[in-house]
């Protein structure tokens, strides 16, 4: 190897060391920012600040002849790390009254995640599980909020078994369906009720940019502190009618998980060589394969419950099955004209979202390609 190349690489190493030092300085500043936000109850995620900063840095990069996409990639990765750092500094406690947070199912993964967040915010957290439910009356006696986060098929049953709650106590649940749990909570408790659905798994490092859906139950003015607490954690709170929520979840969860499940079953029955598929895959197929594999690395009972949660889910999947059969007949007949006609109809239906999804997916595809071994 030439001396010239070695000398250049040495200089690159020096620059990399300088970058590491600057990143360390940035993270130290972020830690201080986290302390200020915690003290004043400022959410860890500020979309306007983030958008403005990225726009400025991209423009500055272009002025220097540097790729703006490169700078955006670097900044977004640094921001993800920053949110984790800020998360560890704790949060302002919104609720000024007395009382504990009781999490039923608190030993589960989602329960532990929220127990940690409430604890970081200065609340006293109590948990109940299947082995301690006989103590429920004593545990909920001073509750400011009771959160039910148990399997879907047990949610309404657990709600019905709850002892009387303090009149101002918030009763809520984290179930991925909302109509039936809300009805059960409203029938059980005369105080404030709200349905919540965290749209993420328990393995997230923090709640920055994560969506939590909430469906109105009763006395919204009394549960606003809980909504605000979650905003401070960085979550994006989205209000929606319970029926509309369940309709959307049929597409987002039930149908999507079922198609991944079916595809995985078919791969296994066809004895597909996963190593070969990974080696030969394009970034988009590798990403799709990862999402299918991710499902099969998790709890089968959870996904069975999500898919079979309602008759509406099953009817939607049956309609999908009929549509799939129609498309199979179309390709059996090698009807290219009809194929293109259907393709164009869907393209028109997607409209501007098609171009938007092209741009968004390009970021994911670059990431998938960067991680190829």
TrEMBL record:
It is found in: Cytoplasm. InterPro entries: 6-PGluconate_DH-like_C_sf (IPR008927), Chor_mut/prephenate_DH_T (IPR008244), Chorismate_II_sf (IPR036263), CM_dom_sf (IPR036979), CM_II_prokaryot (IPR002701), CM_T (IPR011277), NAD(P)-bd_dom_sf (IPR036291), PDH_C (IPR046825). GO terms for molecular function: chorismate mutase activity; NAD+ binding; prephenate dehydrogenase (NAD+) activity; prephenate dehydrogenase (NADP+) activity. It comes from the Bacteria. Residues 99-361 form the Prephenate/arogenate dehydrogenase domain. Its main location: cytoplasm. One of its GO terms (cellular component) is cytoplasm. Pathway: Amino-acid biosynthesis; L-tyrosine biosynthesis; (4-hydroxyphenyl)pyruvate from prephenate (NAD(+) route): step 1/1; Metabolic intermediate biosynthesis; prephenate biosynthesis; prephenate from chorismate: step 1/1. The keyword DNA damage does not apply. This is T-protein. It comes from Gilliamella apicola. The lineage of its organism: Bacteria, Pseudomonadati, Pseudomonadota, Gammaproteobacteria, Orbales.
